[in-house]
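Quick one: structure tokens for this chain, please?
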Amino acid sequence: MRLVILFFLISFTFFLTGCSSNKEPYEGNLPGTVKYDYYYPSTRRLPPEPVYSRVMWVYLPKPVGIETKNDVVFLRRIMSFELKNATLEEAVNAISQSMGFEAVYPRSLAGRRTSIDFEGSVEDALEKLSLDTNTRIKVDRGSRTISVFDRKIAPRIMTEDGN
């Protein structure tokens, strides 16, 4: 029993004094190691309140916008068209290619004959062509198409039931 008590006293003494030291922990980098600085990401959602000091806010540069005026005249490109005894298909394709558009027309109207000798804007040439061939011509700038319709086909609004 004495041995057991002695063993516990000695082990208790080593336990209390065995792991202590008087040295301060080493604060610098050990040779061969690298110290990393970690910066936490910002969690602020709004800019800080303005502080009245020498520090100023500087806005990033933006591209200068185009100054427009409402009274600017719309300039139309003047073109010259001369087609003798041509079909509607040839005339519409020639005008649409000059604009960089695509021509859409039914085959039943493609064979109509017309003659154009015109100098002016493309819109005026299309209007003259439409009167000459008894058709309606619609220019869709969004899809870049020129559509040709027969004047006999009247546009109508479809209702929800299809009539």
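The mean pLDDT is 77.
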